[in-house]
From TrEMBL:
Protein name: D-ribose-binding periplasmic protein
Keyword Signal carried by entry: yes
Species: Gimesia chilikensis
GO cellular component: outer membrane-bounded periplasmic space
Alphabetized GO MF terms: carbohydrate binding
Locations listed in the record: Cell envelope
Length: 327
């Protein structure tokens, strides 16, 4: 009887072992399958920009989408933008939404150099690669938040100085000009203002007034009309982006000073290219908006492949655009 029981127990143990082994094999296979799926899954990159109503950012979006289509086997792309340049809360929300959706990287043109840093720190803590393009994040805030986020973009001060230097050649010492600034808490806006100021100082040209139109065409139009009335001797308007240059152009026409007041901008959007060809705007700076996001995306892809790579800023081209260049 005891031998029978021992035999029965042995058979039962062997049966259970067989069942466990048969169950373990599919589980191992499933784990391997999940690993392979994870390895083969394409990274998802979110591009978060400022206002898509601005032609510069719609051009940026198209450039990024074209690049993704040409490299569709390498990554997926999600494109986002905000209603206008001042909608900071929505841009912060977009960062949080993209992190929650599980993106691998965020390439962002921040609407503000300071306000976006805490949200981007949280993204980095969640394991998301973050690349800053167009408008550089504030270095002091980055240090306070104890994070490194590389910047990919042009030297805005140098680009604005190129435009200012070209304008100065059309003026004479002692002439008066006015400046339409971007958002003052934006690094690129500050750098462009400084570039304009450096060029005017070198040519002994007086800046009669300098105010922020917050990158907006309609605000630039209103401000320029007021400034032209207050400073009737003004010979030129330096606008920190092309949307504001177009607003200034409308103001000059309404003021009856078309052809008498020169206008320069920054961004090289299509409407300003045409205005330069037509002799209505003197010059602008091209920071190659169609490629700017692409530079950031390519950097993000490299960091996803080599997560231990050193984080370094990368300077991109900025070129003077005049009627001669557009011929």
């Amino acid at each position: 009887m005891n031998q029978f029981r021992k035999g029965t127990r042995l058979a039962l143990v062997l049966t259970i072992c067989g069942l466990l082994l048969s169950c373990a094999e599919p589980a191992d296979n499933a784990a391997k399958s999940n690993e392979e799926k994870s390895e083969n899954q394409k990274p998802k990159i979110a591009l978060i920009m400022k206002s898509l109503a601005n032609d510069f950012f719609s051009t940026m979006a198209k450039g990024a989408e074209t690049h993704q289509q040409e490299h569709s086997d390498e990554y997926e792309l999600v494109v986002n933008g905000i209603k206008d340049e001042r909608d900071l809360s929505r841009q912060v929300a977009l960062v949080e939404e993209m992190v929650a959706s599980g993106v691998d990287a965020i390439v962002i043109a921040p609407a503000d150099s300071k306000a976006l840093v805490p949200a981007l720190r949280r993204a980095r803590e969640a394991g998301v690669v973050v690349i800053n393009i167009d408008n550089k994040l504030d270095q002091e805030i980055l240090e306070a938040e104890k994070i490194e986020i590389p910047f990919v973009g042009p030297d805005n001060k140098a680009g604005a100085k190129k435009v200012g230097d070209y304008l100065a050649k059309q003026l004479k010492a002692g002439d008066e000009v006015i400046v339409l600034e971007g958002i003052r808490t934006s690094f690129n806006g500050t750098q462009r203002r400084l570039g304009f100021e450096e060029a005017m100082k070198a040519a002994d040209i007086k800046i009669a007034d300098s105010q922020s139109a917050q990158w907006e065409m309609s605000m630039a139009n209103t401000l320029a009309l007021s400034m032209l009335s207050e400073h009737p001797k003004v010979k030129a308007i330096l606008a920190a982006n092309d949307s504001m240059a177009l607003g200034a152009l409308a103001a000059v026409k309404n003021n009856g000073k078309a052809g008498d007041v020169l206008i320069v901008g920054f961004d090289n959007i299509a409407a300003v290219q045409q205005a330069i060809k037509d002799g209505q705007i003197l010059a602008t700076a091209d920071q190659h908006g169609d490629q700017l996001a692409v530079y950031g995306i390519e950097y993000a892809l490299n960091l996803l492949k080599e997560p231990q790579a050193k984080l370094e800023d990368r300077e991109t081209p900025v070129d003077l655009v005049t009627a001669e260049v557009l011929k």
